TrEMBL record:
Coiled coil: none annotated. The lineage of its organism: Eukaryota, Fungi, Dikarya, Ascomycota, Pezizomycotina. One of its GO terms (molecular function) is dioxygenase activity. Residues 344-364 are annotated as: Disordered. Keywords: Dioxygenase, Iron, Metal-binding, Oxidoreductase. This is TauD/TfdA-like domain-containing protein.
Amino acid sequence: MSTMFRPLLRMPRSRAHSTAIWRRTLATLNERTLHATPLGAVDGTFGAEVSGVDFSRPLPPPIAAEIVQLQNLYGVLVFRSTGLDDDAHVRYSKNFGALESIHGVNKPRRASSPHLYDAGNLDAEGNIIPKYSRAWWHSKGNGLWHTDSSFNQHRSSYSALRAVELPPRGGATMYADMRAAYDDLPASIKQDLDGKIAEHWIWHSRKLAAPQEFDKPTEQEKRAIPPAYHTLVQTAPDTTRKTLYIASHARRIVGMPERESTELIRYLLTHAQQPKYQVACQWKNVGDLVQWDNRCTMHRATAFEDQANRRDMRRTTVYDHGPYAFGVRLGLTEHDVDVLCGGSTDITAGPTPETQTQEQVQAL
């Protein structure tokens, strides 16, 4: 690996400057109704447990606005024992924008609403998904660091994941702060990333996690979810901070030779996965809700005994309505994009470049 891709071991002035801006922003917020307790990650600036929301009633606009402020500050918000059911969960999330409808590829929908993604280990009849089935292999991709819906051209902003049924142990969700990860990059890397575009493809991450099962996605799978294209460096929501927009869905960097592209993606993912950027959410109660901003975070599921214990998790996903919402597809030529997006290259014809080590895949 090139010396330019060695991880940085100390915090540069840029992150210290960003932390100072964060603290000034927190101090200048209007008098708040909600109480946020930082989870302690990244000097207390990443992740918070929030109390004071009455989920039994419609969300008043001032409270919704306060949640947005806290989301911009902390990236990940934890709400305990909300008491939400499917309908109330969907109504709550609509306060923040239009919701994605779930594609249901490889896993028929179980929840009562088409806006609820099933992130558990149960099939349509409520039985545990059998090991080595295609649906079971598909779920292994959730154990890779990723960003929800980066594989869609109209990407997402918030995800809100609710616990309906929990296993007795395991199954925590890990989050990584992509703002702090960008801050810590060497100046030479930041300059090199400026303007670069990544191709995100869900079948790439599925192959990384289950290379034998997803060596070749089916025609139905390819048509259902084609690749999408987004810039690698963006401005975090409602701030002046830059953030990395990277995930295990990222297959290649447009315009770069394959080897260099793979090396850069691997470097960025490895850098952003460092423990100093992470916070773990332990699911404690049925009704716990964790909401995160996909535009400035990555996350991954952790293991539990999925053949012995039931885990029912349901997620709403809000469409982004910001300046990067639709990526950069319209700025690319037919030589840059895949045939499924109107381009000239069939990316399924060749091997998928590896961006995760076998040790990482086996640890899922």
